[in-house]
Structure formats: C-alpha cells, structure tokens
Amino acid sequence: MAIMNIREAIVATLHAEMERDPDILLLGEDVVGGNGTAGGPEAIGGIWGTSPGLWAKFGPERVIDTPISESAIIGAAAGAALSGKRPVAELMFADFVGVSLDQIWNQMAKFRYMFGGKARCPAVVRLVYGAGMQTAAQHSQSVYAMLTAMPGLKVVLPTTPADAKGLLTEALRGDDPVMFFEHKTLYGVKGEVPDGDHRQRFGEARVVREGGDATIVACGRMVNFSEKAADKLAVDGIGVDLLDLRTTSPLDEDAILESVEQTGRLIVVDESPPRCSLAADIAAMVTERAFTSLKAPPAMVTAPHSPVPFARSLERAWVPSPQKIEDAVRRVLAFPGRSGQ
Amino acid sequence: MTTLTPFTMPKWGIEMAEGTIAEWMVAENAPFTRGTVLTLIETDKITNEVEAEKDGRFVRIIAEAGQSYPVGALLAVLSDGGEASAAEIDALVASFRPSESGFDPEASSTPSPPSAPPATSDAAATDIDPALASPTAIQEARRLGVDLAQVQGSGRNGRVFAQDVHQTAYPSPSVSLAGPFPATPPSSVLSTPVARRLAALNSVDLSSVAGSGARGKVKRDDVLAVLKQTGAEAPSPPAPDMSAAPAGDHAAHFDVVPMSSMRRTIARRLTEAKQQIPHFYVRRRVRADRLLALRGAIQGERPSVNDFLIRACALALMEVPALNIQVHDKEMHRFSGADIAVAVATDRGLVTPILFGADDLSLTDIHGRMASLAQRARTGKLRPEEFTGGSFSISNLGGFGVEQFDAIINPPQGAILAVGAARPEPVDDDGAIRIVPVLHLSLSCDHRAIDGADGGRFMAALAKLIEQPHLL
Fold first, then answer.
1. Measured between CA atoms, how close is B192 to chain A, in angstroms?
2. Is A139 part of the annotated catalytic residue set?
3. CB contact at 8 A, B310 and B291
4. Does this complex have an ipTM over 0.85?
5. How many other β-carbons are positioned within 10 Å of the β-carbon of residue A151?
C-alpha cells in the first residue's frame, strides 16, 4: 500500500499500463505537457498534471498532442481502437464532449453491436468534469447522466485513489469504450492505493458506510460530501448506508435495492440538474422495485435546473452541499406516517 | 441433396405490411429457371412480379391466390431443383418462423421473462444462496411464510427482492371496476368518470349522492360511501358473460369477407374524393343515331361506342382546356394532351387504366390500346405508371342498360363523365318528332377548379362531336 492522491494514481497507472501494453497510446490537448513553452515538453505534465513523464518515456508516437478539436481527438481514438490500438483520449473539459458526440454514441458505442460482436472498440475517454473551481458554465458540468443513457458505453467515476487505479486498469484491459470521468476538484484527494496489479470490476458499488437508518446513493464528488454529512448525522446517532456507485453504467442495482430494503429510506445525491438525471433514474428504479420497503418518498439532492454559475458564492449555492445532504436525510427520517413499520 | 428454403412474402418499400397473391405463375413441382415469373403479388399500391432468383421448383405452394399475407409469411417451399419428401417439407413448414416486419411492438413475440430461480422450496432453510435473493427478501419470506421458489424474481437473473415476496404474500386490492362498460346516459350531475362507472355498475343514482369534490363533484369515494351504507360493501360488478350470443344471432345470415388491399384502396380514395371534393353535375341528352350509323358502316373490326366516346372526349378536352386539369391543393395542373382514364370493372374491383395522349390517337389506335389495357387490367398486370395520372375519366355503364348515373371524381383529376345506355327516345329533328337512340351523359366536375360554364361548354362540345360524328 502506498499513500497517493488521485492524480498520482492516474499517472502511475498510465505509466504502468503503457509499459505493459505497447498498444496503449495517449492523445489529447496538451497531453505531452509543455510543448511550446519555455520549459519545453514535460514542463507541466498536462494542464491537469495527469501525464508527466509519459512523452519522455514512450515518445511522440504514443503520446500525442492534438489540435483543439474534440471531434478529432475522439474520432482518432475510435479509429485507432477499431484498428487494434488502445487509445486513451483526454478531454480537458467534459463539457465539450458534445462536439464529439456522434463519434461517441453513433460510432464507439455501436461498433461491437452493429458488427455482430466482431468489432471491438477498446477506447478510454478521460473526461474532466465537475463544478467547484469557478470554471463557469461551459467548463463545470457533470455530463455523466447523458452518456449513462447511451447503451454501449461504460461510465466510470472514481472517487478514491485506489478506485482511480483499479477502474482505470480495468478500463484499459477491457474491450469496450469507457467514459472515465475525473472530477477536477478530486485530483488532490489522498488515500491508500494497493501495490501491483489492482483491478476493480465495473458494476460493483463501494459500500462506504453501513448505518442502517437511511441509504445515501452518490457518485463522484458527492460521495465525499455525503461522508461529511454522515459524520454530522452520526453525532446525533443517525447511521446511514452510503453507496459510491463507482460506475453508473453498468449500475449496481442490487446493492442499492439491498440497502433500501433494509433502511426503507433513499437519498440520491447528484451533481447535476434534476431533470432526466441519474438521481431521478435511481429514485424511479427504487420506487418501482422496492416500493413495499419504502417508509418515505425517495429524496433527490441535486443542483438546481440552471447552468453552473461563475460567481463563487453562487457556484457554492449551486453545488449540492454536505448541509443539503444532511437536511435531506433528516427530512426523510422525519417523514410522518409509516415510521412504525 | 435437395436444399429446401422458405419462399416468403417480399417487402417492397418500408411501409409495406402485407400483400395479396394475385396469381401463381408456376405450378407445384414444375421446374423453373432463373428469371421465371413465379407469382404476381398485389399491394395496396401496385401489382408486381416476383422472379426466380435461381433455378428450382416449388415443392409445396402454401399461399392461396386471392388471399393476403403479411410480409415475411411463408408462401411456398422452394427446392433448389430436386424433389423432397412430404416429411422434409412438413418439417420446414413446422419450424418456419416469419421474420418480424411490423412496426407495432405488440406484434412481436414477447420473450418469456427469466424463469424463477431454482430457489430452495424450504423457506425455513438457513443457507439460501444470496445470489438467488436479497437478504431482506429471504428474511421477509420467512416472516410471511412465503416459499421463495414460488416467487417470480424481478432482479438480474431472476434474483428475488423483498417487493417480489410482498407481492406474493399480499392479496391485490379489492375494489374492482371491471365488467362490461355500462351505458351511462348523459347526467346533469357533476361527477368523475370512475364515479359514474361505479354508480352505473352498482345501480346507484348519482343525483342522490353528495359530492365531496370541487363544486360538489361526485367522486369515487362518495359512491363507495353510499354503497357501504346500503350494505353493498364490496361492489362486485356482474361478470361479463362472454358466452352469450350477440343479439339477433346475425352470424348465421352473412359471410364475413375481408376487403382486399385493392378494395381498401378504392374505399379510401373514393371516400376522400366524395368528402373533400365539391362535386357538381352537368347532364345532357345526346342523340347517338348518327354515331351508331357511322360505326355500323365501318368494315372489319369496329371500334366500340366507348372508343368513339373516348375520342370525342379527347377532342372536347382540347376545345375546353379548363376541364383538362388535375387539382392539387392550391394549384391546377393544365395538361396539353388528353390523358383519359377509362374505368374497367374487374373481378377484384374497379381499375382505371389511362390512355395517354388520346387526342393524338385515331379511333383504330384507341380501340387497339383499350383492348390491351382492359385485358391487362382484368389480369392485374398493369404497370403502376399505366394507372397513375390522367386528367379526366370515363365510366360507362351502358352495357348494363343503365339509363343514367353520376360518378365520383377520381382525384387528382378534375372531372369524370358517366355514360348510360343508348335508348330510343323522341327528339326534335328539325321540327319533326323522331325516335332515335339517345345517350344520357352526366359530367361530375370539381368546383374548386372548374365552374358551371366550363362544364356546360365541354358538354356542348362533346354533344356536337357525338351528334356530328364525321368530326371524329
């Protein structure tokens, strides 16, 4: 076990996997890390610092700076993956996935299906997402729900360094396109990372806490915020089950249902506006499949239906906060009528 | 070795859902070569030939001529040449599954739900595989005495969750609104649909129920409260008696004959025409004695009276171009030549092949072409372009002794002429009364594009041509 942060875990995993498999290549805007700057290549390690040392070690054939064109990045990755490579395509801001959406949902997601299982597209798209750094409306969104809605894609959101390593390794060894979401505020989160080969299977939620009074389902940064809320609730003797989804496609429905059957109360936390969101999807799934276990209506803690504001105070009000999560848990627990059940 | 393959209803165009076998062109077991026309298939748009893609023979013909079959349905069993035993053919027919061709999700076969897991039948067993049921489901099954093996699991691979156990354990709610839908006469009492239905099923007078809804609206619970008071606690509607014969036992007195696709097309188009086109009718008596005399004087093969009328109409259309049109929404299409559709009765219904450029055709040409068109119309072999278009139609029922009738316009054409039989009638012949054969003509015009004066002019021109047939 080593202690490292999520950024370091991703860098270490890319180094290890690119050494192991010569077909893996990395492409994106400024992934070499400093081309054209006074310091030269490698000066910065990429704008998010997730690629230092890769260009020096693996050379320009495998670490490729691209023009500022998401459709070129994703198109090249889709073609490379189809012809036997394992590209890792980095989108500096997940918000711009829209530019390359056809390449993702009509091409990457469909190749295997439309060629009767004979084609494979082992591309990993790393998308940097999330609000909290005052990057404003076009650089702060959480678009994982949209990609989760597309069959044929796997959607991954690591929240710990161990999962960043385990899930990225799993993505690079699988044969399907993976949308790997990295929250821009979580790169510095530290934790223990298993040494050696570490793979985390997709579709297995992480049980962060087991408390029994209510079930909180979250992903990405909302897992960390939910832990903070859980700490406050624990002071009052309220114990929550907290599930970190890890992957939203596939979704670990069983883990959610098992927990709700025991607690009878569901709070879904989602860093997105509420309409057609992951929160709405999970609340509906639980309402349909565990109705007889529910003691209160499911609660959704989401952002408001608005773009992400730029002003610091407004952005903080926009993001679902630990306080809002705590309030929602208390509200669900206080729901009258059926608590004696 | 003989290879057998299914011969199925083809799909011509994305909206084709079914086709009718107009005629089989090869016999069962008769060998044919590549390119042979195997069958004629009629859709609601066209009749088309299906050619053999390679040499072979039909070892069994299943579809009957005149019947409709959905796209993908098995029409015959095709052999690559050799003969096949009845057992082999039966096996292919039995195993045949038509490919999906419809758009209605209800039409496709629903895959059976995953079968219940082979859960242990002993609910008290302590070591139930957690892959088969969630922990709470196992606990609830024990508490409620439910045998997990009897529960249909809703989870992945049929895994049982608590709700599945609860649905098995608890009976469904009691109040039922099922039953034959009662006729509810319009009521002045403000009430919800469910309340009306409940009241009708249980003979409750709605006007006697105090409504608890907005503005005194009677709601379900109000009716239920009345039922409770009157003792009819569990309103159980009379079960529908499905076995009862329909009133009057009509079934014995008629055969149900499904409309062919062609009949349905005729029905649809003429309904549209009669509903949407403002028809007006211009009628005229025309003496036909000179035309009949002229026809009688022709040596050899004589054109029919109808051929004369086609020629007369063609020339009259040239004279009155206001009638030589198609009507399209906000446009009129004026034609330079006379493309005249002639109604031909066939066994399968009305067909209207078109004589293109009739104004440029001699009587002999018209006679020859009409004979060919009518023959192919009766055998369903017209090409689509031969019955599409035209600006004017002629329908002649004179052969049945019909004196006079009015016809429905064949859209987008602008007008149609209905022709009756030539009957002896008195006419004014230069001051004298003479009895001569007289034709009754009735012209139906689309008043959106054609005015009464145009119709009158056309009929005058037509009458002149018929009464002075040397002009033809």
1. 28
2. yes
3. no
4. no
5. 10
